[in-house]
Amino acid sequence: MLLYLSSNENIGIFDFLSKEKGMVIKKLSGDFYLKKFVIHDMRSLSHYSYFAIDLKALKDNENEIIEAITAFKAMYDSRIIIFAEGLKREDEIISRLIEEKIYNVIISKEIQEIKDEILKCLSHIGKTEEDWNLKETHENQYIFNHKNVKIAVAGVSSRVGTTTTAFNMARFLFNIGAKVSYTEANDSGHLKEIADYYEFLKIENYYRYKGVEYYPNKQFPNDVNYQIFDLGSLYKGNIAIFKNCDIKVLCSGSKPYELIETYEAINSVKDVNYNILFTSISNEENFKIRKSFENSKDNIHFLKYSPSLFDEKINEDIYKEIIKDFIA
Length: 328
Hints:
By secondary structure, the chain is of the alpha/beta class. It is elongated and about 75 Å long.
């Protein structure tokens, strides 16, 4: 038996199961607060083997949906099936569902493909993690043979895009299929403000958002492909950490006084290989900056302006070049 919370738009999507499989389906259509439904109404309906949820029928925000599903899993044994027509693997809600081990998620748009996905969800095993991972591998065509590759991102001074670069690199790495973490390895406290503003999912001692794990207080996990450390401004107290990371990224602006700070930073790390990311201005100015630093032991790149913390695309060619020795 299947219980289906449906929007009016998608009320007939599971009907073929009654005709072809003889399955008993109970439909509840309209607008629902899933969290309230799970707590107050589900107890009398817990005998259903499958609980299908049309995301279009829900009035909850994403955090409330995840909390409600987590509570449901703790209380009941019914298999959860999520109908999320037209969404993609990288969409926030889908990523979070998969992270919570909710693999029976339907995202197809064509009728036959939707039916195929429904039947897969109702099969003996249902959808598994491999169903989603195989799709990622096929799309991304990358192999990650390394574990816990440490990437240090530091600025020659404050407000040169260090945190934006670290966040965008994390998004880029996740987008190509890697498991990645971000660590706030500085004392700014910005991560909590960012997490509150964008409503990151709080999990014990870290946050999760769009597939990336974010750790405050210099904490980090040991089971990822890449660990990104946002060191803030480079100074005597964190130079050793910067030098000891596998990949070293130094962020700088392109203003004259920022270039002076870049020279000073270079002198403090001149015995290691690193990448300098300058803000791109114009071809003429970029050439002048490259000429000024041509004797430095570094790889110079010029970033396109990115106001977003979650833009993995705009500078992806640069990020790919930076990690090329740790990707296949």
